[in-house]
């Protein structure tokens, strides 16, 4: 066994071991491989040497060992960019290849000029006796320049600055140190000592500078050449360059500049530009001189970016370095480390440059101050305001939204609080419309898209109280609209003003509709799907719902209960809770069910006893009006929520505490006492609106009567408390109004409870009619007192507001009086006559009331849609009632609005005239007023848009219009003058009906029952309307087909069946019965049956705009088969024929005498609805009454003005496209038409030339078989024939189908005369047209002409060749030439290649 070498073996031992190993013959552990040198190619090839003479190298190889050392860090292998493009051959000579490819090396090496060092001084070190150089302290060296020079890049340490200053001092002491040339080793420091360095001005040429009045190059200095020739050589090169530039055109110079910029290294370009920006070159020999600006030349515009930087003004130039004199204070020697100036660190103390006065239209980033106001970019504000502490654009004052968002996430508490407060101010001003004309786009939408909701929600979780308060302030600015709350408070005492729409986004309805078709999906699954949505998706669709999903309510409870914030934050939290409660009943329920939230509000902010503080530093333990308002809004969510507040949370005790005491006796500030007393009365009014808390009325009756005695009190206009006193008086009257409603229901409920018919009848209230009979006299006295103050202009506005509440109470009293068992008719009639003569008639004739009528139209939301249009900052996920730019001065919701007064007056008049019909005629002056008639006409012509900001205003105006129409209904039999305007009132009712919003279904039902189908409101039926229709048909009598009956008898018959028409439509509206019952309870004041003060979501009107087509559409939806031909008449529901007949009769009446009532229905929608008649059954359209009425409707629909407005490209409501409906009509016509001309006219109408060719292609392509039965005569066409023939057809596939149907005999004149003429017209125009077209179309044109000439059917051939023009009165439907015209003959000869005149003779010979 061989011995292994040891560490202590000598060289002799190693040689001995090697000899033993070789002698043993054992194979080695490694293999020696001789590998050739890669750089020398294969051994012995091309190098003249044999392998034996090459240098032999021993290479040790180990198994699995890579050839190259792996990299320590995994990086991609480096590849040469030139290796792929380089081609080498095996036998190529490297030296020859080098000589061939690298020719530039030889050129460069052959022109080497050695540097002239004859004049370079030799620096000899100074002699010194010290062994080592002396060490200097930095305090001994005087600074030559403070701060970096203009060309210095980067920052330099104090040590480097001292070393540079020491070297400069040593050079200045040497004999040759006065030389003008600077040492290259100084680098950028050489410019620090130049005496004349200043900011650059305009240069005469790019890349040049002036020294001593001589233009020189910045880049070429000549350094290194001889002293005599260096500068002259550099100047010569520079002059050659400038001459070359001058000789080139400007375009070529710019092109070369772009080429160089794309080819050169960007770092090199930056270096060249830095030489220009730094001023005189650091290697030039002349110092900087004062430069004179010269005229611009072509070379100056080479780099527009640089020019903008240089010539933007003096503000764009770098400021001079800071000096000791620029400091706001002078450093003292005893200050540590303050004896030396550090310019880099003191730059932040320099004043900011003034903003640039730019006259540009380019948009700039919006910046805001701490109050949220927009700062103009040109405004120069002082820096002590703190508006310049940002990195971007430091010279501009204010903070951008991005910077504020960044500060909201800062670690500094003050920065977070200040940023959130600034955002709150910005949001408030944006919602007020302050940025509408200054900022492009929506500020609020931008903030929400950036994640404002989540930012505020995260900020609420901050542990610092100041940040929480700022976040609450910002959230309140986002959610709460003070204008909305003010408007809702002012309309609380209006007619049905206690009810309001939920503030839900309109889009939510559309999202929910996506799951309506999923019948198998239960509500639990939909609720679970809603819970699984991410917070971002929920907040994007509905901000309030998203905040509730993010657990906002528990956090607000924690802030109120644990943090106990200052009064301002408490008020903001309560306002946020009010806004959440207004969102929807579900949101209000979540507020009620949040653990300890309402208990905290009741115990801390609505205590029954408290100790006053002046001024209050903390609201905990003090009554807060906002807390009482929160209870009122929550009570409006439903009767169960109200009962829970009153009975479980102590609301009843709070009502007694704040109502039983006069506001002046409460230990609160006068304004606060009035506010909380008013809110308590409003909460009580909401409770009595459900029939609850009526026992408190009996207990507090003396206090209420005492408060009534001071209602007509005169308030001085300058008293700041008079608006609050007025609101309290209105709330008191509203409370008594609802108590009267509840007392009026006692008798009905008592009778229902005694009978066993209604098991779900609510219990009767604790108050009956005897408890409220004593209220009428004091309130009537208050009404008379208010009328007396109308003459005082200073008190007129307050008097009118209080008059509305008093009139509503009297209307409620008399509407319930005649239903009671204690009703005495004789005494009541005498009382009403006295009321009319003493109160109502003087009120109607008062000058102030006339002024209110004059103001009614200008304040109308119907007549002025722009007054309630949404603002530019409106957000779909956060609806609001406010309009753009706040509420206009003349608005329905303003304090001077006449709407509540006239609504209450008409409500009282309607109640009075229902009891005493003998005094009805005395009130006709209100309707006969020219101003009122003009207002009604303007409402008929209006076209309002339904938005969240307009829905609540339109609802109140709809109440006024409804009551005016009810008054007109009372006056029609009693006043002939009013009867003369019956058409106006009927038109107003028809216009109001499709505009009514959810919650007004009772009004719609009442209009249907009393006015819409009332023959008294359609005087045309009695005053010659049918006769006028007959006269209009006389001029068409000769051309009319016998199947088209005259219009007069149809109208006369429809007027005779108006009661049946009413019953038909009420039957089809039976699906609205639950909504009608709920609305009836609300409008009639049946308070025990009212479930909630929240109305249904105002996503659209209660009735569709095309409600007159409802019987026809509903029948189609039940039995209509789109495929056609499968439904028999026996399968129709009972009375279907009668229902369809009544529907067609009503449509005929509207189209003839009330055309504007269907203006909202597009002509295409009308055609689509009437087409359902043919899809309902196989032979319903063949019934005689249906035929007669449909022909009449088709004639009205095809009036030239209406046909011109027909657009089939727009999909009708309820259809994906009109083409789908037309395809179903074609299939039905093929199956069951039996050649009916009426059905054929509906098929022909969409085939007019101006409509899409797809429907014509469907007829001649897929349904060509129906041409055999489409036998509508030319005289039966409801539209002129020219509508089908002009302009010429340009669809080549359709023309080919025309020709094929004619040739194959599918289209014949005896079968389908209309389309036969249409095909002839378009084919004749096409084959003989000589307009320039594409080669493909020309080939098809010639092909059709050849085929036409060689037709064997001579009749068809003559019709195609000799066609002249269409003629609807002609027997054939068109006129023909006797012979081919010369132009057609030449065209035929050119296509067929016949001799001259042969085509004309052929055409003449072939004429039959």
UniProtKB/TrEMBL annotation:
InterPro entries: ARM-type_fold, RPAP1/Rba50, RPAP1_C, RPAP1_N, TPR_RPAP1/MINIYO-like. Residues 1108-1333 form the RPAP1/MINIYO-like TPR repeats domain. Signal peptide: none annotated. It is found in: Nucleus. Its main location: nucleus. Residues 1-19, 520-536 have a biased composition (Basic and acidic residues). This is RNA polymerase II associated protein 1. It comes from Paramormyrops kingsleyae. The lineage of its organism: Eukaryota, Metazoa, Chordata, Craniata, Vertebrata.
């Amino acid at each position: 066994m061989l011995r292994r070498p040891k560490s202590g073996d000598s060289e002799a031992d190693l040689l001995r071991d090697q000899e033993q190993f070789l002698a043993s013959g054992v194979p080695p552990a490694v293999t020696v491989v001789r590998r050739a040198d890669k750089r020398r190619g294969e051994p012995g090839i091309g190098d003249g040497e044999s392998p034996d003479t090459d240098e032999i190298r021993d290479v040790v190889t180990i198994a699995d060992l890579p050839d190259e050392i792996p990299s320590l860090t995994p990086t991609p292998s480096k590849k040469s960019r030139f290796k792929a493009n380089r081609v080498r051959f095996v036998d190529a000579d490297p030296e020859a290849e080098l000589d061939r490819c690298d020719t530039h090396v030889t050129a460069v090496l052959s022109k080497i000029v050695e540097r002239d060092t004859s004049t370079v001084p030799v620096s000899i070190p100074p002699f010194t006796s010290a062994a080592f150089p002396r060490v200097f302290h930095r305090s001994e060296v005087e600074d030559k320049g403070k701060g970096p020079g203009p060309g210095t890049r980067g920052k330099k340490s104090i040590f480097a600055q001292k070393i540079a200053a020491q070297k400069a001092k040593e050079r200045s002491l040497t004999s040759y140190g006065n030389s003008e040339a600077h040492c290259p080793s100084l680098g950028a420091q050489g410019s620090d000592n130049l005496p004349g360095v200043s900011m650059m001005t305009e240069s005469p040429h790019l890349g040049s500078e002036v020294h001593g009045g001589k233009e020189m190059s910045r880049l070429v200095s000549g350094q290194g050449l001889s002293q005599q020739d260096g500068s002259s050589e550099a100047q010569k090169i520079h002059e050659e360059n400038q001459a070359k530039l001058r000789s080139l055109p400007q375009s070529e110079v710019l092109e070369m500049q772009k080429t160089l910029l794309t080819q050169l290294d960007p770092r090199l370009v930056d270096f060249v530009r830095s030489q220009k920006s730094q001023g005189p070159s650091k290697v030039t020999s002349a110092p900087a001189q004062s430069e004179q600006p010269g005229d611009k030349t072509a070379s100056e515009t080479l780099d527009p970016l640089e020019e903008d930087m240089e010539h933007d003004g003096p503000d764009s130039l770098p400021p001079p370095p800071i000096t000791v004199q620029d400091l706001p204070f002078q450093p003292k020697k005893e200050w540590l480390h303050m004896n030396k100036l550090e310019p880099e660190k003191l730059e932040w103390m320099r004043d900011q440059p003034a903003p640039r006065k730019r006259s540009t239209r380019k948009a700039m980033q919006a910046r805001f101050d701490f109050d949220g106001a927009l700062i103009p970019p040109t405004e120069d504000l002082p820096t002590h305001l703190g508006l310049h502490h940002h990195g971007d654009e430091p010279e501009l004052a204010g903070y951008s939204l991005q910077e504020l968002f960044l500060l909201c996430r800062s670690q500094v508490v003050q920065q977070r609080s200040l940023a959130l407060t600034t955002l709150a101010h910005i949001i408030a001003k944006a919602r007020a419309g302050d940025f509408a004309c200054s900022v492009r786009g929506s500020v609020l939408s931008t903030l929400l898209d950036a994640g404002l909701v989540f930012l505020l929600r995260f900020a609420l979780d901050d542990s610092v109280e100041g940040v929480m308060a700022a976040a609450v302030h910002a959230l309140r600015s986002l959610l709460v609209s003070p204008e909305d709350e003010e408007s809702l408070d002012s309309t609380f005492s209006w007619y049905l003003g206690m009810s309001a729409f939920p503030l839900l986004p309109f889009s939510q309805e559309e999202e929910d509709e996506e799951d309506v078709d999923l019948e198998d999906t239960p509500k639990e699954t939909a609720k679970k799907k809603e819970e699984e949505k991410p917070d971002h998706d929920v907040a994007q669709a509905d901000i309030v719902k998203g905040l509730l999903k993010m657990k906002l309510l528990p956090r607000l409870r924690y802030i109120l209960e644990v943090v106990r914030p200052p009064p301002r934050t408490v008020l903001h939290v309560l306002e946020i809770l009010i806004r959440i409660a207004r969102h929807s009943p579900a949101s209000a329920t979540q507020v009620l069910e949040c653990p300890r939230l309402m208990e905290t509000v009741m115990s801390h902010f609505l205590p029954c006893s408290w100790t006053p503080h002046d001024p209050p530093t903390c609201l905990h333990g003090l009554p807060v009006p906002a807390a009482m308002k929160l209870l009122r809004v929550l009570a409006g969510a439903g009767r169960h929520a109200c009962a829970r507040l009153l009975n479980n949370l102590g609301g009843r005790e709070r009502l007694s505490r704040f109502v039983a005491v006069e506001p002046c006796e409460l230990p609160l500030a006068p304004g606060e006492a009035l506010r909380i007393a008013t809110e308590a009365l409003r909460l009580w009014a909401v409770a009595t609106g459900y029939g609850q808390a009526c026992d408190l009325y009996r207990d507090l009756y003396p206090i209420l009567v005492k408060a009534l005695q001071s209602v007509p009190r005169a308030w001085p206009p300058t008293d700041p408390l008079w608006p609050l006193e007025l609101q309290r008086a209105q709330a008191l009257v509203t409370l008594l109004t609802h108590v009267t409603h509840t007392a009026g229901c006692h008798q009905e409920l008592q009778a229902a409870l005694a009978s066993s018919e209604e098991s779900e009848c609510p219990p009767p209230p604790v108050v009956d009619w005897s408890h409220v009979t004593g209220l009428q006299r004091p309130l009537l006295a208050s009404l008379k007192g208010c009328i007396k103050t109308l003459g005082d202009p200073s008190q007129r506005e307050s008097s009118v507001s209080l008059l509305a509440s008093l009139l509503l109470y009297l209307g409620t009293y008399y509407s319930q009086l005649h239903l009671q068992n204690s009703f005495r008719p004789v005494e009541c009639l005498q009382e009403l006559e006295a009321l009319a003569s003493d109160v109502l008639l003087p009120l109607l004739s008062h000058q102030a009331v006339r002024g209110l009528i004059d103001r009614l139209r200008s304040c109308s939301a119907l007549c002025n849609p722009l007054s309630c249009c949404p603002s530019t900052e409106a957000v779909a996920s956060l609806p609001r009632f406010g309009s753009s730019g706040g509420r206009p001065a003349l608005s329905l919701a303003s304090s001077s609005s006449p709407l509540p007064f006239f609504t209450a007056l008409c409500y009282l008049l309607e109640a009075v005239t229902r009891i005493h019909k003998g005094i009805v005629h005395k009130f006709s002056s209100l309707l006969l007023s020219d101003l009122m008639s003009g207002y009604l006409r303007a409402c008929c012509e209006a076209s309002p848009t339904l938005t969240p900001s307009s829905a609540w205003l339109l609802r109140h105006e709809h109440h006024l219009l409804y009551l005016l129409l009810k008054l007109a209904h009372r006056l029609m039999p009693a006043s002939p003058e009013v009867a003369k305007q019956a058409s106006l009132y009927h038109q107003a009712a028809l216009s109001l009906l499709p505009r009514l919003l959810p919650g007004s279904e009772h009004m719609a039902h009442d209009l249907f029952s009393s006015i819409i189908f009332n023959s008294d409101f359609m005087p045309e039926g009695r005053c010659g309307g049918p006769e006028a229709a007959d006269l209009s048909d006389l001029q068409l009598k000769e051309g009319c087909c016998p199947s088209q009956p005259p219009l007069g008898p149809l109208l006369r018959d429809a007027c005779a069946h108006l009661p049946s028409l009413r019953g038909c439509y009420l039957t089809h509206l039976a699906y609205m019965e639950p909504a009608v019952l709920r609305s009836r309870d609300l409008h009639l004041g049946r308070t025990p049956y009212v479930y909630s003060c929240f109305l249904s979501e105002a996503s659209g009107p209660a009735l569709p705009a095309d409600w007159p087509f409802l019987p026809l559409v509903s029948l189609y939806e039940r039995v209509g088969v789109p495929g056609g031909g499968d439904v028999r008449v026996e399968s129709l529901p009972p009375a279907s024929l009668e229902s369809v007949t009544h529907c067609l009769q009503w449509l005929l009446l509207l189209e003839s005498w009330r055309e504007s009532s269907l203006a909202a229905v597009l002509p295409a929608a009308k055609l689509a609805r009437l087409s359902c008649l043919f899809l309902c059954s196989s032979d319903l359209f063949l019934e005689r009454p249906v035929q007669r009425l449909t022909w009449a409707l088709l004639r009205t629909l095809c009036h030239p003005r209406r046909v011109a407005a027909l657009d089939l490209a727009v999909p009708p409501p309820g259809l994906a496209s009109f083409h789908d409906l037309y395809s179903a009509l074609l299939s039905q016509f093929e199956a069951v038409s039996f050649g009916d001309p009426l059905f054929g006219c509906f098929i022909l109408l969409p085939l007019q030339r101006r409509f899409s060719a797809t429907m014509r292609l469907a007829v001649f392509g897929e349904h060509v078989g129906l041409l055999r039965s489409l036998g509508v005569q030319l005289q039966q066409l409801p539209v002129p024939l020219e509508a089908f023939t002009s302009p010429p057809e340009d669809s080549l596939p359709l023309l080919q189908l025309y020709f094929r149907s004619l040739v194959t005999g599918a289209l014949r004149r005896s079968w389908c005369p209309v389309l036969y003429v249409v095909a002839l017209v378009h084919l004749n125009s096409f084959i003989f047209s000589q307009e320039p077209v594409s080669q493909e179309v020309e080939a098809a044109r010639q092909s059709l002409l050849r085929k036409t000439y060689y037709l064997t059917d001579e009749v068809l051939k003559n019709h195609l060749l000799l066609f002249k023009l269409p003629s609807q009165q002609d027997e054939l439907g068109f006129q023909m030439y006797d012979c081919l015209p010369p132009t057609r003959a030449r065209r035929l000869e050119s296509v067929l290649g016949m001799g001259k005149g042969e085509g004309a003779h052929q055409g003449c010979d072939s004429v039959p």
